[in-house]
């Protein structure tokens, strides 16, 4: 569907650079990671052939995802990939897609999935870390399906920072980081998009038994004390 829509989109040139399946290429260069390879085999397997541990971090705008990710990185050594940060970086780079991303973010809408997945995949491939916190993604069912299709992997678990709207509005409007979407009009749209597109994804992971709901009201440290045991349990499992 996105491909058809993309025909008249200014995102099209970027979409055309997406990795395509080519049986003559090593899988790593076609789908990013050889997720279906026998990861546990001993000997001769490069670090890139270890299955990555992926955690999605979801929640409404201003719910505190980025703030908590910083603490998770510090405590548990994950690589933090914020989809919004990657898009903002692409937006201010020389990329010809910058203005399309800017318009989409200014309106509080969602950038085509394949663009965002490509940016995430590039960072995953460039990283030596095998533990990824993917923040603000997937924002829609389309995001989720594109990740599964292009990267070929699923998250081990998903965090959901559950925060009341009025608290999110208050936090976003006092964030003061110069973000183009930190204004009341864009925030209203972002909240609508969150409810219409993001909540169904959260529901999907809940039904799969992968969702950890975190009460996102309280101090940063209080909230982190709910997050910590999730990662400690994950570390125990890996031993
Ligand atoms: N527990 C908290 N209590 C009060 N303020 C908080 C708390 N956690 C984060 N903040 C502040 O709220 C603002 C939004 O937090 P943050 O950027 O982490 O949210 P986010 O979920 O990543 O938002 P977005 O989706 O817009 O990127 C920041 O200014 C941050 O310092
Ligand atoms: N999966 C994503 C993530 C982000 N965006 C765009 C639209 C968001 O409003 C904006 C800011 O993201 P945040 O920093 O709040 O995570 O970036 C998107 O289109 N798709
Ligand atoms: Mg954020």
From TrEMBL:
It catalyses: dCMP + ATP = dCDP + ADP; CMP + ATP = CDP + ADP; UMP + ATP = UDP + ADP. It comes from Phaseolus vulgaris (Kidney bean). It is an enzyme of class 2 (transferase). A ribonucleoside 5'-phosphate binds at residues 88, 109-111, 136-139, 179, 190. This is UMP-CMP kinase. Binds 1 Mg(2+) ion per monomer. Its EC number is 2.7.4.14. Keywords: ATP-binding, Cytoplasm, Kinase, Nucleotide-binding, Nucleus, Pyrimidine biosynthesis, Transferase. PANTHER family: NUCLEOTIDE KINASE (PTHR23359). It holds the Pfam family ADK. GO terms for cellular component: mitochondrion; nucleus. CDD domains: ADK. GO terms for biological process: 'de novo' pyrimidine nucleobase biosynthetic process; pyrimidine nucleotide biosynthetic process.
């Amino acid at each position: 569907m996105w491909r058809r829509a993309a025909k008249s989109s200014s995102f099209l040139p970027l979409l055309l650079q997406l990795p395509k399946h080519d049986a003559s290429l090593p899988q790593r260069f076609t789908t990013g990671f050889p997720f279906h390879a026998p990861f546990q085999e001993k000997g001769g397997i490069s670090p890139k052939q270890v299955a990555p541990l992926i955690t999605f971090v979801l929640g409404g705008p201003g719910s505190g995802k980025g703030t908590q990710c910083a603490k998770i990185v510090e405590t548990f050594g994950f690589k933090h990939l914020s989809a919004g940060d990657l898009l903002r970086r692409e937006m201010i780079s020389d990329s010809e897609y910058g203005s399309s991303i800017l318009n989409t973010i200014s309106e509080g809408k969602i950038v085509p999935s394949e663009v965002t997945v490509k940016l995430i995949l590039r960072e995953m491939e460039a990283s030596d870390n095998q533990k990824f916190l993917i923040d603000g993604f997937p924002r829609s069912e389309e995001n989720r399906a594109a990740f599964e299709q292009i990267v070929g992997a699923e998250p081990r678990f998903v965090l959901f920072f559950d925060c009341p709207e009025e608290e999110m509005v208050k936090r976003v409007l006092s964030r003061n980081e110069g973000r183009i979407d930190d204004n009341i009009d864009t925030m209203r749209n972002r909240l609508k998009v969150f409810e219409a597109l993001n909540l169904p994804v959260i529901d999907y992971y809940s039904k799969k038994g992968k969702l950890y709901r975190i009460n996102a009201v309280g101090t940063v440290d209080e909230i982190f004390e709910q997050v910590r045991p999730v990662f400690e349990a994950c570390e125990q499992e890996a031993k």
